[in-house]
Task: structure prediction
Amino acid sequence: HDSPKTEDPFVQRLLSDDKPTGKAAFEELARLDEQSKQACVPSLIQYVREDPGIIRERAIGALSRMGSVVVPETIPLLDEADPAVRVAAVRVLEGAAIHGRRDSTVVDPIVTALRRSLHDSEHTVRLQTVVTLGRLGAKDARSDLIEALKDHDSRVRHYAVTAVGPGVEQV
Result:
């Protein structure tokens, strides 16, 4: 049986190596209604799961621009075995929050999911999560970000200082 990721011609254009084709598809993506965006999500999620490298990056870029429609299918990626997929999920959720116009009904479930990722076993996931929560200005995660100041990875601690804000020193 065919993988869902190979069936959608629009998704194929989004992921195209041909720059004009990809650019046109990204411009079209911005004009799609929510239902049309939702139809693309499963295929793009498959690319994030299965295709490391430039294809994954393009899928992350597309998903990141789609707003709230990606959230339900992206949050489970935070529990994937592959840390690169978990990092990708954090990046997609950041984009969803930003493109979701920082609406609390979009951002709150994202922040709740990301707070768990601050305790991920992989430092790259924790680092991306700290950076993302800082960019989102997630006040609900402030206590978790303060805890990240004690992370055993110096890069996580460094970005936690920035994310927490002025007046906090690295522990």
The CA atoms of residues 103 and 128 lie 21 Å apart.
